[in-house]
């Protein structure tokens, strides 16, 4: 995409890893996302369907990813911090249902990326951080979780980054987030910005990753707002459709890893903040339950996600 950009963005968000700018462009918005550090190498992007809620990236000459969509605010901006007006989740549920449908459409493409099979980038970042970080967040995580749980987290990463353990079998978004779901323009419809983290792996990873994000919001915001995030998780699963019993383990794993990656990424690319203590305090039961605590936080069970799956 090489269109001229407006002079000034209407939104400008930056961390040490990613610089996102949103420009008003006629009756649409141009989302420009420049990966500053620890991104995947730029590659030719596959052709993706655009009639099912996906908003495919175009690669700019300078390597930035650009998206032209109607909306200028993400669902994340509407969700966080939660308010009493949105407590029941009904106005936002259609956006999550659309996102579920979009991910089902993406996964139907099969493994299409050329070259060595890329794994979801957040898993690669976390595996590296667990292995080699020496910052305050890593020290606090070690103190709270202990060596055995840290080894368990590393093992979860290995399941996804080692081809022999988890052969890639579908095209993944790789890091779906409420920050990439763009209502266009009303919350009743939305598109999912897709392209910069495309990878291969179990399809349930993408659904689990989003559920893990909703679960973290539910756990951090408290019981008054938990029904909002449970409603959104239910809407996501309704849009995606039934999972299989084989999907439950990667679903839990991805949901559990999501909160750990939040701590690692924030500490690495923004810096330590006292609020991370609360985030870290929520992690032990995620590890101890192999991620099921994240699903429980948004009222997702194996039987609702995968009808016919045997409870464990």
Characterization of this structure:
Strand 2 and strand 3 (28-35) form a beta hairpin. The chain has a 5-stranded antiparallel beta sheet, with no helix packed on it. The protein is globular, with a radius of gyration of 18 Å. It has 11 helices and 10 strands. Helix content is 43%, strand content 13%. By secondary structure, it is of the alpha+beta class.
Summarize the structure.
This protein has 11 helices and 10 strands. By secondary structure, the protein is of the alpha+beta class.
Structural features:
312 residues; alpha+beta; three-stranded mixed beta sheet; 13% strand; globular
Ordered list of secondary-structure elements with their pairings:
Layout: E1 11-14, E2 18-25, E3 28-35, E4 54-56, E5 58-59, E6 65-69, H1 75-79, H2 93-107, H3 121-132, H4 136-161, E7 171-172, E8 181-183, E9 190-194, E10 199-200, H5 204-221, H6 226-240, H7 248-269, H8 275-281, H9 284-288, H10 292-297, H11 302-305
The spatial strand order of the largest sheet comes to 1-2-3-6-5
Rounded radius of gyration (Å) = 18 Å
Determine the structural class based on helices, strands and strand pairing. alpha+beta
Q: What characteristic shape results from the CA principal axes?
A: globular
Q: Count up the helices.
A: 11
Q: Write the H/E string, N to C.
A: EEEEEEHHHHEEEEHHHHHHH
Q: Give the averaged pLDDT, no decimals.
A: 89
How many β-strands, per DSSP? 10
Instruction: Tell me the strand percentage band.
Output: 5-15%
Largest sheet: 5 strands, antiparallel
Enumerate the spans where pLDDT stays under 50 for 5 or more consecutive residues: none
Helix content: 40-55%
N/C terminus separation: 48 Å
